[in-house]
Design brief:
This protein has 332 residues and is α+β, with helices and mostly antiparallel strands. Helix content is 30%, strand content 24%. The strands form four sheets. Strands 4-3-5-6-7-8-9-10 form an eight-stranded mixed sheet, sandwiched between helices. A five-stranded mixed sheet has the order 12-11-13-17-15, sandwiched between helices. It has a two-stranded antiparallel ribbon with strand order 1-2. Helix 2 runs antiparallel to helix 3 and helix 4 packs across helix 7. The longest helix has 23 residues. The protein binds 2,5-anhydro-1,6-di-O-phosphono-D-mannitol and magnesium ion. Magnesium ion binds next to strand 5.
Length: 332
């Protein structure tokens, strides 16, 4: 059986469906190439001396791991010279990275969390890269304000999961497709066409250790999940928490579930832990394109007008029935 490579899939999308331009196709190929390099480095682990702390912090005051910094550099270097981008922004950089003047500029903005799930790096558990693509509104000299577009304006979003297999999951706005890296040929192969999230589920994901800090609607909902068959939901639920959003979302795309990272009372000024532009928006586009739902408890995440590049947001995403239920509890 002949397999479809990522390159062939993208060419066919460009030709048949006009879903993407040649520039966007090139952009995705470059991101995929960078993810292969990151995958290779992640696989080497301590053999390459790349585990542990970098000794630096990012703008959110989080300690950076060596691999956070390496993955960020790989994505910057891969994407700066090709002429497809106007600028990049990363969870690990204070400000946007304009394309150097020595290179031609293109019409897209690329945003990424270079290595999501940092707490899993040193313990050999799955991590991932998340990315989002927007159009640059003002030509080739973008400002920070140009990035502040709602998630509905994303032209493409994806993630690469560095797990037992390395997988790239991609949406161009017409469904979700999963590609597995064939390490022998070096190409991503379409293995999971038309991924879709079941409407109903019996599985939830939340960091339960924060329970005492949650707000009332989330407490109520999780109490009902835990009450199982004899409770108001009338069925038993199972729990999984990878602590890598990429891993948790990938499970939900594969067999359904609900993922929650609510805002809580530890740091009431923060609207959650996860970042809107690098994590919530791309994952929400993927989840919606797979038939799921994604909200911050009140509104659709993709409709939120961003105010800051690094802003945080509460996240409830996954199987429609459960995300709608917990969202409705916030309105009660
Ligand atoms: P990171 O970008 O610093 O790695 O943080 C994001 C991660 C998500 O991947 C994951 O869902 C969450 O943080 C885990 O949080 P917790 O440490 O509370 O389990
Ligand atoms: Mg992250």
């Amino acid at each position: 059986m002949s397999r479809t490579s990522l390159s062939r899939y993208l060419i066919e999308q460009q030709r048949a469906n006009n879903a993407i331009t040649a520039d966007l196709r090139f952009l995705i190929e470059v991101v995929a190439r960078a993810c292969k390099a990151i995958s290779h480095t992640v696989n080497k682990g301590e053999l390459a001396g790349i585990l542990g702390e970098a000794g630096t912090g990012n703008i959110q005051g989080e300690a950076q791991k060596k691999l956070d910094v390496i993955a960020n550099d790989v994505l910057l270097e891969a994407n700066e010279w090709g002429g497809h981008l106007a600028a990049m922004a990363s969870e690990e950089m204070d400000h946007p990275y304009p394309i150097p003047n020595s290179y031609p500029k293109g019409g897209f903005l690329l945003l990424f969390d270079p290595l999501d799930g940092s707490s899993n790096i040193d313990i050999n558990i799955s991590v991932g890269t998340i990315f989002s693509v927007l159009k640059a509104p003002n030509g080739d000299t973008p400002t920070e304000a140009d990035f502040l577009q709602p998630g509905t304006r994303q032209v493409c979003a994806g993630y690469t999961l560095y797990g037992p297999q390395t997988m790239l999951v991609l949406t161009l706005g017409n469904g979700v497709n999963g590609f597995t890296l064939d390490r022998e040929t070096g190409s991503f192969v379409l293995t999971h066409p038309n991924m879709s999230i079941p409407t109903e589920t019996r599985e939830f994901a939340i960091n339960m250790s924060n329970m005492r800090h949650w707000q009332a609607p989330v407490k109520r909902y999780v109490d009902e999940l835990l009450a199982g068959k004899s409770g108001p939901l009338g069925k038993d639920f199972n729990m999984r928490w990878v602590a890598s959003m990429v891993g948790d979302v990938h499970r939900i795309l594969t067999r359904g579930g609900i993922f929650m990272y609510p805002r809580d009372n530890r740091e009431p000024e923060k609207a959650g832990k996860l970042r809107l532009m690098y994590e919530a928006n791309p994952m929400s586009m993927i989840v919606e394109q797979a038939g799921g739902v994604s909200t911050n408890g009140h509104t659709r995440i993709l409709d939120i007008q961003p105010e800051q590049l690094h802003q945080r947001v509460a996240v409830f995403l996954g199987s429609k029935q459960e995300v709608e239920r917990v969202t409705s509890y916030h309105q009660a």
